Amino acid sequence: MKKSIGAKVFALPSPVWVVGTYGENNTPNIMTAAWAGICCSVPPCVAVSLVKARASYGNIMKRKAFTISIPSSKQATEADYAGLVSGTKVDKFTTANLTAVKSEFVDAPYVEEFPLILECRLKQTVEIGLHTQFIGEIVDIKADEAVLNEKGIPTLEKVLPFVYSTTDLAYYHIGEQLGQAHSIGMKFKI
């Protein structure tokens, strides 16, 4: 029997993405976001939800662009730090020993050291409540060659991303492959 525990943000897990934007005077900024995910396949889009108080919120509204830098589990400390302090008060790139790179296709920086980058043009905003959801159309993806398979596609086992648990406020590695999607459930198809 299930027990009701009320309305909470316990959808498990959440990705750990680092949002890159430019602030005043073209200052590169990053912030960690877990309220995020893929929201459309054609055109390819992601959504990230931010509160108005964040520097990144204003930066995206002004520049109409952002990046998503996806860190590997080896970079959890740096990614966590990017969500702990305000970009209006500190240069997070310098403090965390990270390199800001100007995106090729959008007006936003990304983190050179992180293995997978999504360059996004702001497509739409949705006011939800405390958060505003920024829907970004992916205009380019950059990946370290080391995380690509023989077909030139990044793989989970090579990127080694990690996830955030909203229930215990902790980061976790992603586990082993269970089977091929769109295949393992075929045994139930009539």
From TrEMBL:
Residues 10-164 form the Flavin reductase like domain. Signal peptide: none annotated. Keywords: Flavoprotein. The keyword Thylakoid does not apply. GO terms for molecular function: FMN binding; oxidoreductase activity, acting on the CH-NH group of donors, NAD or NADP as acceptor. Its cofactor is FMN. The keyword Flavoprotein applies. Belongs to the flavoredoxin family. This is Flavoredoxin.
